[in-house]
Amino acid sequence: MKNSKIKTFSLLLTICYLLLANVSYGMFTKIGMAGMPFLKLGVGRATGMGDAFVAIADDASAAYWNPAGLALLKNREILLNHIDWILETRHEYLAAAFPTKLGTFAVSVTSVNYGEFEETTIDQYQGTGRTFDAGDLSVGASFARMFTDKFAFGATVKAIQQRIWEMTSSAVAFDFGTYYNTGWQNVRLAMSIANFGPDAIFSGSQLDFTVSDPENYTWPWTITPIPATYKTEKFPLPIVFRFGVAYDIFKIEEKSRLTFAADLAHYNDINEKVNLGLEYKFMNFLVRGGYILNTDTQYAKDLGWRNGLSFGGGITLNPVHNLNFTVDYAYRDLARLGISHRVTLNVGF
User: Fold this and answer.
1) CA distance 21 to 23
2) Which CA distances in Å does 296 have to 7, 25, 135?
3) Domain membership flag for residue 229
């Protein structure tokens, strides 16, 4: 049995290597081809294990990673996640999941605050003395159901808004996910697609201007100055396709467990990534580690090996019957942009 598990683990590593080699071939730069990048910022305990979570997704954060995973929940859960991102950027995430006889329903909210910025112009490049702020918001509703004892499907619809000063951009997007437990050595396979929806566009008063001395204008253009508005280009949402596998290397009842997970993430605006993660549970304590491999090897080399490194841990408390508190911490190295700390509170009842 032990040799069989070792062989299975080796097979999974080989598959990950082949996936990495395959997506690296024929690669091209896609940076900047999509907007609303905050939708790609991971949440929950997954961030401590290299974002390798699509085939695990067994808590309320599944509303973000793979809505099909919500069907695995046995109890109601409320999850709060806080991320200290770059500079003054603060990322907050809330998810609440409610299992029923029909399936699991969930709601989720993502809020990002970028702080204040000083206004500058071509003529006043040192600043005008005025400031403005910016922020993002996403509100989603999810549903997931087990169709067999091994297969689940889930979907999310969400309303998204991005705001900078008096300009806004709104969109509606969908997430879809599947989960399948093969029944062999507890190997789980999953797929998800996130942020699938129509292109978005910015609008607002900051695009308005006037033409005080129009040239080549004749009657009936008798109004001066003439009001006008800049027309902005549409931009696509950051669509993400994930394929993942998860495997319990060993499990001793509910006391001790070591889980390996690997995801292949394909983006429409950046290079593909391979996410690798481990999670070890002993009693009420959890330890995690992971790494995010960028398929652009030159880019990864320029940033250094630490970029993509993550680790974390957590503890579960049971103060009363049917009430669980899980507190998680995760660390992520952002190379030249510093480090990022994430804290998650999960309440099950």
Assistant:
1) 6
2) 30, 10, 30
3) no
What's the gap between Cα 33 and its chain centre? Answer: 17
Q: Do 42 and 342 meet the contact criterion of CB atoms below 8 Å apart?
A: no
Residue type, 169: S
Q: Write out the two tokens for 248.
A: 């319990």
The string of pLDDT tens digits covering residues 109-152 is 999 998 888 888 888 888 888 888 899 999 999 999 999 999 99
Domain containing residue 36: CATH number? 2.40.160.40
Q: Amino acid identity of 179?
A: Y
Answer for the pair 167, 206: CB distance below 8 angstroms, yes or no.
yes
CB atoms within 10 A of CB 298: 8
| Burial category of 151 from C-beta neighbours within 10 Å (exposed 0-12, middle 13-18, buried 19 and up) | middle
* Predicted pLDDT at 219: 58
Domain that holds residue 139: 2-195+235-293+319-348
CA of 188: how far to CAs of 12, 52, 69, in Å? 11, 13, 11
pLDDT grade for 6, boundaries at 50, 70 and 90: very low
> In degrees, to the nearest 5, what angle opens at C-alpha 216 toward C-alphas 214 and 221?
65
Distance of CA 290 to the CA centre of its chain: 16
Q: Where are the beta strands (DSSP E) in the chain?
A: 77-84, 90-99, 104-118, 131-146, 151-164, 167-181, 188-196, 203-204, 208-211, 226-229, 240-252, 256-267, 273-282, 285-294, 309-320, 323-333, 339-348
